[in-house]
Amino acid sequence: MSKPVLAQPLFVPEQTPTKRRHRKNGFTLIEIMAVVLIMGLLMGLVGVQVFAQVDKARVSAAGAKMKQIESALEFYRMDNFKYPPSLEGLINKPTDAKNFPKGGYLKQLDVLKDPWENHYVYVNPGTKNQHSVDISSAGPDGVAGNEDDIKNWDDRTGTGS
Predict the structure, then answer these.
(1) Ordered structural domains, the chain, with CATH
(2) pLDDT tens, 70-124?
(3) Which residues are 137's β-sheet partners?
(4) More reliable by pLDDT, 31 or 157
């Protein structure tokens, strides 16, 4: 007589000692891809905000450097009764300067460049500041004459800051 066939259980729990699956430590490819995707999305959102703040900081720095140059120009004028022929005259003594402090009026050449590494434009005598000088930067795009220029005068009134 043949042996009776015993019914096999349909569900075998994984926790039986003989059938335990051993999972290796680590992450699956899907988990890694999900993390990379989320990080990419976050960097895209955060990066745009960070770069906008960097541009604002550069514009502020350009204005601050311009104020520093204006102050040095006024000190030069008080000592020599006129403005220097160029901005370099604040660092290196011009030939016609009667009074010039040791070390100059500005200590560093990089003050004469805007945050985008372009030289400030210096107009003496000023056309916008009639009793002073005009100083401007072409701004982030490096093209003079458009709305992102940084200047020491107000276009609405035509007067200096």
Answers:
(1) 56-160 (3.30.700.10)
(2) 999 999 999 999 999 999 989 888 888 888 888 888 887 778 888 888 889 898 8
(3) 150
(4) 31
d(CA 135, CA 120): 6
Tokens of residue 51, six digits: 């770069």
Q: What is the average pLDDT across 8-18? A: 59
Each as own residue / partner, the long-range contacts of residues 79-88 (CB below 8 Å, 24 or more positions apart, any chain) are 83/124, 83/125, 83/133, 84/124, 85/124, 86/122, 87/112, 87/119, 87/120, 87/122, 88/112
Asked if 118 contacts 65 with a C-beta cutoff of 8 angstroms, the reply is no
Would you tell me how many other CB atoms lie within 10 Å of the CB of residue 99? 10
